[in-house]
């Protein structure tokens, strides 16, 4: 199955990096590309990450073009986050029962249509904050199905020893393309034309992602005997979700880390996605290009850190390092609170991206190594759900809280609260003892 899909051009690229062409082994970060099926999935991921980066910047500046401020931007971003949350637990059960390729193709197609609709509405001057909110909500609902299906599919496409490198590549692609190249292209398109152009570019990139996914082979889903709920799909889905919840509650390292992530994102996401662009526009006199530079710095920092992490073996203290690094990732907000120019925000974004992204490589790998395969889709959806459960609250509160206590104090809270929560999670979850008892080196 691994070699069922191949392409001469991609094969030649890999061959030039291989033992025969260079006389030495592939670097650890490139070993997954020996697998043809994964190469197509990686290209699809690159296109979808680019589309997401372009879409994000286009959405922000379309709200501003319509005369909106932090409250309106909070409304649109909250709608997207709420849309993700509503079906997310169901999405995990679906990923464990339905072919993951079909799920990914469906997500790419619906996202392409949503971006195209936004482009047409903006170009025709029919766009409005309520319309953008509706589109963002619908795309959020669709996106809920992506992460569980993608995570559940990976262990079936690549060998276990390559999972660290795979997660490192993903951790590099999402920041570099989704948070650097995509926003940069969006900033240029908005500056030269309008947000509608950015939406059109995003839709075209998502169409390319769907075409690449067509080349990925189907991965068989292991059938599960479910005589108790035979012929009752709703009860079967509820039973699947309950099984995933029980696993999370009975696994201390997983529960402690997910609860910490929930609190971290509550503190950080609203300031990151709502207040930073407003700070750039209102206090620093910046524009869409400056916003794109900040996102690009965040992405480049994350990409470099992920690349380094993917080239290293799994650390012995993998849970402690992951949790504490995430807890410290908010400290650059202290610099942002005192920023007098955009370049200070750019530098802080670079550091924040690095601190936030390299633990993601470790986290994705340990889930794929420690969670039973038949539960991986549901645990991935729980990971996503618990982690983002308070993100809509964070985005909804960012604008009003900054107006009530000031923007700088809001950034101070975003900087310090995650660090305190990280220490508490390490102690309460007894993470050092767990990682020593369950080594992944």
Number of strands: 0
Query: What gross morphology would you assign?
Result: globular
End-to-end gap? 28 Å
The CATH architecture would be: Up-down Bundle
H/E element string?
A: HHHHHHHHHHHHHHHHHHHH
Question: Could you explain how this protein is built, in words?
Answer:
It contains 20 helices and no strands. The radius of gyration is 21 Å and the shape is globular. The longest helix is centred in the middle third of the chain and has 32 residues, at 252-283. The protein has helices at residues 8-17, 19-22, 36-65, 70-85, 88-95, 100-123, 129-143, 146-157, 163-192, 195-213, 233-249, 252-283, 288-310, 318-328, 333-337, 342-370, 376-388, 391-405, 407-428, 431-437. With 441 residues, it is an all-alpha fold. It has a single domain (31-218, 243-437), classed as MFS general substrate transporter like domains (Growth Hormone, Chain: A).
Give descriptors for this structure.
441 residues; disordered N terminus; Growth Hormone, Chain: A; single chain; mainly alpha
């Amino acid at each position: 199955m691994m070699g069922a899909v191949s392409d001469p051009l991609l094969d030649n690229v890999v061959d030039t990096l291989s033992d025969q062409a260079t006389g030495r082994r592939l670097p650890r970060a490139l070993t997954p590309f020996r697998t043809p099926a994964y190469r197509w999935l990686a290209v699809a991921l690159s296109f979808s990450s680019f589309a997401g980066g372009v879409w994000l910047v286009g959405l922000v500046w379309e709200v501003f073009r319509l005369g909106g401020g932090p409250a309106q931007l909070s409304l649109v971003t909250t709608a997207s986050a709420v849309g993700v949350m509503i079906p997310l637990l169901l999405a995990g059960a679906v990923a464990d029962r339905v072919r993951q390729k079909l799920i990914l193709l469906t997500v790419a197609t619906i996202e392409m249509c949503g971006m195209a609709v936004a482009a047409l509405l903006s170009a025709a001057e029919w766009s409005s904050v309520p319309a953008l909110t509706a589109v963002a909500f619908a795309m959020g609902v669709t996106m809920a199905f992506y992460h569980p299906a993608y995570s559940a599919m990976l262990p079936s496409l690549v060998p276990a020893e390559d999972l660290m490198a795979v997660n490192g590549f993903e951790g590099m692609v999402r920041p570099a393309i989704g948070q650097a190249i995509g926003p940069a292209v969006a900033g240029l398109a908005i500056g030269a034309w309008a947000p509608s152009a950015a939406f059109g570019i995003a839709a075209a990139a998502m169409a390319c992602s769907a075409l690449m996914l067509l080349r990925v082979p189907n991965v068989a889903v292991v059938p599960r005997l479910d005589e108790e709920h035979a012929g009752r799909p709703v009860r079967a889905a509820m039973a699947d979700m309950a099984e995933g919840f029980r696993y999370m509650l009975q696994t201390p390292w997983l529960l402690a880390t997910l609860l910490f992530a929930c609190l971290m994102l509550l503190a950080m996401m609203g300031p990151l996605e709502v207040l930073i662009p407003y700070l750039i526009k209102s206090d620093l006199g910046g524009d869409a290009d400056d916003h794109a530079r900040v996102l690009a710095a965040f992405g480049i920092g994350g990409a470099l850190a992920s690349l380094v992490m993917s080239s290293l073996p799994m650390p012995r203290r993998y849970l402690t390092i992951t949790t504490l690094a995430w807890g410290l990732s908010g400290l650059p907000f202290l610099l942002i609170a005192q920023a007098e120019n955009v370049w200070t925000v750019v530098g802080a974004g670079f550091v924040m991206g690095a601190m936030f992204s390299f633990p993601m490589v470790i986290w994705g790998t340990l889930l794929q190594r420690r969670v039973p395969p038949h539960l991986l889709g549901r645990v991935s959806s729980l990971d996503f759900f618990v982690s983002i459960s308070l993100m809509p609250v964070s985005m909804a509160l960012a604008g009003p809280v900054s107006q009530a206590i000031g923007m700088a104090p809001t950034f101070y809270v975003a900087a310090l609260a995650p660090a305190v929560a990280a220490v508490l999670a390490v102690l309460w979850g007894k993470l050092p003892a767990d990682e020593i008892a369950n080594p992944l080196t």
